[in-house]
Amino acid sequence: MSVAFRRESDDEHLEPKFEIPIPPGPNLVTARGRHLIDKRVAALEALLEQGGDETTINAAKRDLRYWQTRQITAELAPVPDGTTVEFGTTVSFRLDGKLRTVTIVGHDEADPAEGLIAFTAPLSRALIGAEPGEILAFGNREDAIEVVTVAAA
């Protein structure tokens, strides 16, 4: 018998809606990152109070579960002193001769286009612990990165 004759509704052929995956490891945040999480939770709660169609409400509930989990598990990282590259610092470095500047932040605050990279990103892992003037290995090259400056963000 054809599927067209057995199917009771189109709902059984819709893509399943999965939870937003939580990044593994600690949920380290900067003060700015914590503020962004709190703002996102408040915005989603306000959206749910407004109501709307079922699809919008279900998506908002799913997003709210994610952001509330991130809010509860957030660990405010200590403010760095800026002498070495660590969570919460802004670092300028040369990579393949090009000067770049990034700030090392938590997963939810990361935005590579804005120069905010997660502390678990390969570039962050290569930079963490370095001091200005150090030459670091990255991408199968022993001298790929030269740390220029480090500052507390």
Automatic annotation (TrEMBL):
Protein name per its UniProtKB record: GreA/GreB family elongation factor
Record-level Gene Ontology MF annotations: translation elongation factor activity
Domain of life according to the entry: Bacteria
Transcription elongation factor GreA/GreB C-terminal domain span: 83-139
Organism the protein comes from: Novosphingobium rhizovicinum
UniProt keywords, alphabetically: Elongation factor, Protein biosynthesis
Gene3D superfamilies cross-referenced by the UniProt entry: Transcription elongation factor, GreA/GreB, C-terminal domain
